[in-house]
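Quick one:
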Amino acid sequence: MVAPTRALLLGGTKHGIRRLRLTTKQVNGGYYKGTGSGSMGSHTKWGGYRLDPNKLRNYVVPDLTGFKLTPFVTKKLEPTKGKFGKGGPMSGEAYLEKWKELNGVN
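Output:
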């Protein structure tokens, strides 16, 4: 007799796979997952949208003067505007030429 894997059924907990989150395909049509973004205001009766200052998000950015870490962006890269040739930036030839140039391959 073939039985499903016990670890899959239990999943490390007493109730197992039933403890996972529901998806929209597992429930009836009344389930709406949403994005967790929340509203920033309200709709007007004329079809507009009015922002509510109390609902807007305020991000507090610390003072970064003298901060030693920098973004992970190289400073050696030169601007490439107009340097791709007739194939454009999405051509394979331009990619291969740049790869050979950066990796020292003839």
